């Protein structure tokens, strides 16, 4: 008896997909242009600080410098080398506003007293109403405390005399709460309340000032507000916000949205929005220095205090030392990881056959599905490597991890579904 064997028939579908770093959240990497690159580095600003002093914030204006820590303020005037203990004291890291009145000036206040940092150094200034927020707009210094907006005389940061053509105030009650930040825009002064944003328009003549509501939102962290020349940016309880321009936060927004915050602060310099805040990662909370811009984003795992924009760059303090972002990439050991959002390639069960990755440096590569996980450790040389997975599932996530210098130039995955009969 003879039997005729039937031929094998294949019903297999294959799909290749690029995995873009911008579609995930990166900590310790700089995500830009479809790559994960070295993050920017930081540098120490001073070789030595006053004995026993731990800095929480550093401020610059007109060549002068002031250091805040533990209520005390040390300062030095332009051209001086040594810091001296100032008679100015603050109960906490002061709010600040930068402007020009015959030279660069920085107004500082803790809500109880005010001071000015100029080329001559730091001095208390009783003429400036104590403020929780301030900004220079329309050649005037504007300050806010509670529901009141106060404005100074044109081109004189210390003159708040309540006279026609000089200073005055506007009481602005609102159901959105007290004023927590002021930011000067292109043609308006943004007034950020506890739960919303307003804008003040009008320059020069006091009778032309007008305040109108812009939007409402969950509780705003006032210290995080900044204007980058295109849009107003801030952090609220539900995550970061952008008004007046394109959103620049990407997948990192989800990490910020649920995190319990201490005292987040934001500043814009060099085309980037910098934010000291906490993020939710790996079932916990981590402090970061986040950098956002149209060219990419990065979350540096740093616990910072007192972040502000001084001298055209981002300054802050870590472990009691004043530091600034430098252009040189961070080459030392740093905890770095990246994770993608969940993806269902077919909407049903399939198999992740392969990961192809181009990278340089030691990396742990992980793929997870609702049915299992695969972990690979590679030493990338810049060439593409194929990692065979054979991981079934319906939904897939990918992750990278390292503590060594490493860069990722591209990732591609191959899915397959169907069978051979």
Briefly characterize the structure.
The chain is mostly beta strands.
Provide structural commentary:
The protein has 421 residues and is mainly beta. Helix content is 1%, strand content 59%. It has one helix at residues 252-257; strands at residues 10-18, 24-27, 30-32, 35-37, 40-44, 57-61, 64-69, 72-76, 84-89, 95-100, 104-109, 114-118, 121-124, 133-137, 140-145, 148-151, 168-171, 179-184, 189-193, 196-201, 210-216, 220-227, 232-236, 239-243, 265-269, 272-281, 284-293, 296-300, 305-310, 313-318, 321-329, 336-340, 350-369, 372-393, 396-402, 407-420. Strands 1, 2, 32, 33, 34, 35 and 36 form a seven-stranded antiparallel β-sheet that branches. A hairpin with a 2-residue loop joins strand 26 and strand 27. It is elongated. Mean pLDDT is 91; it is low at 1-9.
